[in-house]
Design goal:
Strands 6, 7, 8, 9, 10, 11, 12, 13, 14, 15, 16 and 17 form a 12-stranded mixed β-sheet that branches. Helix content is 34%, strand content 21%. Among the domains are: 85 residues, Alpha-Beta Plaits, CATH 3.30.70; 135 residues, 2-Layer Sandwich (Nucleotidyltransferase, domain 5), CATH 3.30.420. It is α/β, with parallel strands linked by helices. Bound molecules: zinc ion (2 copies) and fe (iii) ion (FE).
Length: 756
């Protein structure tokens, strides 16, 4: 096993490379450490447990003077290093680490804010050269104070002295500030803004104290953070959480919880070593954890769900609030439904006035919005679910060089865009679903922002093939003569190949399983089994097509898909008693399916999971994306059943009908849904293994790329990953960009380079 690590930070000239060398030797690893333009690159080979240990110890034992601004890592296949060496610096590759991500508060700054008598005691905007806002305050390059939203604050004499003193930690710290000269917070009662009905305004430390008091009383506060506003309330107060949901129109999708420290996370959830590393990492993402049985968190945090999204404070303000509050808070993006997160005061007051009781705001402008990132540890790997704050805008390094600068416009759901130059791809922050006018506006801003920030004039522009995606339409409007359209599932596989160091002449087997993507035959795909290289793909297998009665509506109502699967399997679904529908309703939908009225064909794997969840009675209506598959996965987690269902593969079709038949039989004979779910998962795993075997035989390929949102499913990914390994395949999974559509833009950049 090989572990590849890319560290950005103060890691040159502080004894970092010798430290890595000694640590690697001590553990018994082979590979190298090398300085590069933004920090160091490390590749180490050895047994998996040793590599995990290595990863864990780097951050714990690093030299005192070093600072890590970002640590990205992935586990890859072996290269066969002979010993561990310190390699000479790579002089090629121009310096393009012009913009850093926002960095969590460093230990020294934490000391400053918690030490009485320090001039930054309790100051929520404390930062230094090693920490603080970057990406979210930069207006222009070079990164100087006058090009950030800190330009409106004139440094006091004390701050100026630090700023100009090369021996000071705040030497040339662009966002440096103190209580005398820097930004400050204000607590606003919105009724004051709307005509002054007994409102109030608290400032600075009084505002924090009042805010803490209001949270304790059960209020919902919109708190301005790094990349936008959070909606915050007491996570232990069931009523507050429920009211927040109602006002935000978020019925059941889990909301993230911010804890003061790792110990308080461990009181409510199971935390493995890698999960602890992720929680404490400088990127401070939301980590999806399994709830503990006796957790005191109310069910409304993640209704009917075995997991919670937990994260730790990453700004001084978060630290101060949580220290005083002494209990965890819900901290969820401040928006309604799927709109972009609110970042400006006007916008926040307008959009959030019906949601938040109070606003804890400040006078430092957020230049660009950036949502919290989300990761999940699966199969001992850190899988990004949303790659945003903390990770953006550092590049993904390609295993080859791009011939021309490329712009990738991304997909429709979970959109990110990307720009690529040389061997670097800069993926944008999470833009989200391009559904609302606000999202489209944010999307256009982001495209222009990235082109400007990285000074790129794209010669190739790539979009999805879907003619209705706003990103495709945008491409046709602005880049018609440079536009290349790339099939969605091929983009998924390309992104997985690129982050796994696949070379130009290599071929892989690819499984791209997701909810939806436009096919070259203009139908909705989503279960593509292909062989692929960077220059093209062959679609070899996919699910037997079935209809989606009502089209997009079926996504929100899995019972429609259930009826369709039952119809395909039994030739009629109108008399089916497994679904809680009236006879009239069943006949209505069955008729739609039979006649193909407003019922497009699909081969979507995600929808198959939806349909199965409904057939077994788990979920007939969903309130957020992929809710039914999440529930199906969690039901399966509770079973250790190893049996699988029969399936048939004929020509290029994966026939789901025998599976549905047996599921119905099991359901009728009252087999527990946990067992049925597990058997269904086992079956999909077996399908992947069996197709991999046959493609290895026919095409001689052993590398298997797994991409698409369905591979966020932990049972599926772990099962496939382990079994492929056991059988001598090299499974390739996502560790740098999300397997869902958030990673599509990376694949599009690759396609833009090879497909012209
Ligand atoms: Zn600091
Ligand atoms: Zn000052
Ligand atoms: Fe997709």
């Amino acid at each position: 096993m090989r572990l590849k690590i890319s560290i950005t930070g103060v890691v040159q000239g502080v004894g970092f490379r010798p430290f890595i060398y000694r640590l690697a030797k001590d553990i018994g690893l082979k590979g190298y450490v090398q300085n590069d333009t933004g920090g160091v690159t490390i590749e180490a080979e050895g047994a998996e447990s040793l590599l995990t240990d290595f990863l864990f110890r780097i951050e714990k034992e690093k030299p005192a003077l070093s600072q890590i601004f970002s640590l990205r890592h992935s586990f890859l296949h072996d290269k066969g290093f002979k010993e561990f060496v310190i390699k000479e610096s790579d002089k090629e590759g121009e310096i393009r680490v012009s913009v850093l991500p926002d960095i969590e508060t460093c230990d020294e700054c934490l000391y400053d804010i918690s030490t009485k008598g320090n001039r930054r005691f309790n100051y929520p905007f404390t930062n230094c050269t090693n920490c603080g806002p970057r990406f979210t305050i930069i207006e222009d390059l070079p990164y100087d104070r006058k090009n950030t939203s800190m330009k409106y604050f004139r440094m006091c004499a004390d701050c100026e002295r630090e700023y100009n003193d090369p021996s000071d930690r705040r030497f040339h710290a662009q966002p440096d500030a103190c209580p005398v000269c820097g930004p400050f917070i204000t607590l606003i009662n919105p009724t004051l803004e709307n005509g002054g009905m007994g409102g109030f305004k608290y400032q600075k430390d009084d505002a924090i104290n009042k805010c803490v008091e209001l949270i304790k009383e059960g209020n919902i506060i919109a708190i301005k953070g790094l990349g936008g506003y959070h909606l915050v309330c007491d996570a232990m107060n069931e009523t507050s959480v429920r009211i927040l949901r109602e006002r935000k129109q978020r019925e059941e999708r889990p909301v993230a919880v911010m804890f003061a420290d790792i110990e308080s996370v461990e009181a409510e959830a199971h935390v493995s070593m890698l999960e602890e590393r992720a929680l404490c990492s400088v990127e401070r993402p939301i980590v999806i954890l399994r709830k503990k049985k006796g957790t005191r968190l109310p069910d409304s945090i993640s209704p009917g769900n075995d997991t919670i999204g937990a994260f730790l404070p990453y700004t001084p303000l978060h630290h101060i609030i949580l220290q005083r509050l002494k209990r965890p808070v819900v901290a969820t993006s401040a928006n309604i439904s799927d709109e972009p997160i609110a970042k400006d005061e006007d916008d926040a007051f307008k959009r959030l006035s019906g949601i938040a009781d109070y606003f804890l705001t400040n006078n430092r402008k957020i230049v660009r919005r950036c949502d919290d990132s989300v990761v999940r540890i699966v199969a001992e790997r850190q899988i990004p679910i949303r790659r945003s704050r903390g990770f953006v805008p550092l590049p993904v390094i390609l295993p080859f060089r791009l011939e021309k600068p490329v712009l990738a416009l991304g997909p429709y759901m979970n959109n990110t865009i990307a720009v690529g130059i040389d061997d670097k791809v800069y993926l944008s922050q999470h833009v989200g679903d391009l559904e609302t006018p606000l999202a489209m506006e944010f999307y256009e801003e982001t495209v222009n922002d990235f082109l400007r920030l990285f000074n790129i004039k794209p010669e190739v522009v790539v979009s999805d093939m879907h003619p209705g995606y706003y990103s495709t339409i945008f491409g046709e409007m602005h880049y018609k003569d440079k536009l290349v359209k790339v099939q969605h599932h091929f983009s998924h596989i390309l992104s997985c190949m690129a982050e796994n160091d696949i070379q130009n002449d290599e071929e892989v087997i690819g499984f791209a399983f997701d909810g939806t993507g436009y096919g070259t035959d203009k139908t909705v795909w989503g279960s593509e089994v292909m062989t692929a290289s960077y220059s093209g793909f062959k679609r070899l297998y996919h699910l037997r097509p079935y209809r989606l009665p009502g089209g997009e509506k079926a996504v929100k109502e899995p019972f429609r898909i259930a009826l369709s699967l039952l119809y395909e399997t039994f030739g009629d679904a109108s008399e089916f008693d497994l679904l809680s529908l009236s006879g009239k309703e069943r006949r209505f939908y069955t008729d739609m399916i039979k006649k193909g009225v407003n019922s497009p064909l699909t081969t979507s794997m995600g929808r198959l999971f939806d349909g199965v969840a409904s057939i077994i009675g788990l979920k007939h209506h969903v309130s957020y994306h992929a809710q039914a598959p999440v529930m199906l996965e969690q039901a399966a987690q509770r079973s250790d059943e190893e049996v699988k269902y029969e399936f048939r593969i004929e020509e290029s079709l994966i026939d789901f009908r025998p599976i549905i038949q047996e599921i119905v039989r099991d359901k009728r004979s009252e087999v527990p849904i946990e067992v049925i779910s597990k058997k269904f998962h086992n079956t999909i795993i077996e399908i992947i293994l069996s197709l991999s075997e046959s493609l290895r035989k026919s095409a001689g390929i052993t590398k298997v790329a797994l991409s698409g949102g369905v591979f966020q499913n932990a049972i599926l990914l772990t099962g496939v990953f382990n079994k492929l390994n056991e059988r001598g395949f090299t499974p390739l999974i996502h560790q740098l960009v999300p397997p869902n559509d958030g990673g599509i833009s990376l694949g599009q950049i690759v396609a833009g380079n090879f497909q012209r």
